């Protein structure tokens, strides 16, 4: 059960209308930040495009086949440039939109507790980028499935939109996956969710992690799926452990926890 601390609102919650207004405000601010980052992405599109297609070219070279990214439509090249620019914008503006996320999650807390946004961003940004880097590290193995059935000395023309959308979705998805445990622990720190609540959902966490890895890695072997699933499961368990330790310290300072997880003050 969630442990709620006193907030600026006497009832500890915001009216639905205020929630929707706050959500719209944060979404607009986050989108503006991504657009500003996309300007940089537009400027560095050429080297970024080369880096995104390198895993495909390297996998093709290892199998002695010719593979290339093909723009099949008249406007597909421009469309892809916009997508790559937004992808880069999401990466470089991650400190900004992560701050907006935390500001929306904790609008009714005290001023002191809202300062936790700085700590959240300070930890969340490296974790998000670490997840993206991890995805980039294992990407060549996932991309192999795109070329493994191509006969030697043949040419494989891969649709640019299909391939690049897969790569960008893959990188961003694992960035978000590494971000979830940070959000879990921070929610516990500000007293919104107890560690026991996170612990009760461990079976669902394992299942979702495995399904997520299976969907994001279209390779036939289980080993690759587990290589991606184990870090996300491990981070979830680490967040649960840290939350339980924090709850223990809070319980010793303020009282003892009831059997159902509520705090007796």
TrEMBL record:
Main location class: membrane
Membrane-topology descriptor: Multi-pass membrane protein
Keywords on record: Cell membrane, Membrane, Protein transport, Translocation, Transmembrane, Transmembrane helix, Transport
GO molecular function, one term: proton motive force dependent protein transmembrane transporter activity
Example GO biological process: intracellular protein transmembrane transport
Transmembrane segments: 27-45, 84-105, 117-139, 166-190, 202-219, 225-245
Keyword Flavoprotein: no
GO CC term (a single one): TAT protein transport complex
Keyword Metal-binding: no
Pfam families: TatC
Cellular localization per UniProt: Cell membrane; Membrane
Top-level taxon of origin: Bacteria
HAMAP family: TatC
Functional summary from the UniProt entry: Part of the twin-arginine translocation (Tat) system that transports large folded proteins containing a characteristic twin-arginine motif in their signal peptide across membranes. Together with TatB, TatC is part of a receptor directly interacting with Tat signal peptides.
Record's subunit section: The Tat system comprises two distinct complexes: a TatABC complex, containing multiple copies of TatA, TatB and TatC subunits, and a separate TatA complex, containing only TatA subunits. Substrates initially bind to the TatABC complex, which probably triggers association of the separate TatA complex to form the active translocon.
Family according to the record: Belongs to the TatC family.
Name of this protein: Sec-independent protein translocase protein TatC
Organism: Cellulomonas hominis
């Amino acid at each position: 059960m969630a442990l709620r601390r006193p907030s600026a609102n006497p009832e500890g919650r915001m009216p639905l209308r205020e929630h929707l207004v706050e959500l719209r405000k944060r979404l607009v601010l986050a989108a503006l930040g991504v657009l500003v980052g996309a300007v940089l992405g537009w400027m560095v599109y050429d080297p970024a495009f080369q880096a995104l297609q390198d895993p495909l070219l390297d996998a093709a070279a290892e199998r002695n086949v010719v593979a290339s990214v093909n723009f099949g439509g008249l406007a597909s090249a421009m469309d892809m440039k916009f997508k790559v620019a937004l992808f880069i914008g999401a990466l470089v503006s991650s400190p900004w939109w992560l701050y907006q996320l935390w500001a929306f999650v904790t609008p009714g807390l005290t001023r002191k507790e809202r300062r936790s946004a700085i700590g959240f961003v300070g930890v969340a940004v490296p974790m998000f980028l670490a997840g993206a880097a991890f995805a980039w590290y294992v990407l060549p193995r996932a991309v192999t499935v795109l070329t493994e059935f191509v006969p030697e000395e043949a040419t494989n023309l891969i649709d640019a939109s299909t391939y690049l959308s897969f790569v960008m979705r893959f990188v961003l998805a694992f960035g978000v996956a590494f971000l979830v445990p940070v959000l879990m622990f921070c929610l516990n720190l500000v007293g919104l969710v107890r560690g026991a609540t996170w612990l009760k959902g461990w079976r669902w966490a394992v299942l979702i992690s495995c399904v997520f890895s299976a969907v994001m890695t279209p390779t036939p072997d289980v080993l690759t799926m587990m290589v991606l699933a184990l870090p996300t499961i491990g981070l979830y368990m680490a967040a649960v452990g840290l939350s339980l330790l924090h709850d223990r310290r809070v319980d010793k300072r303020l009282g003892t926890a009831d059997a159902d997880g509520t705090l007796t003050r």
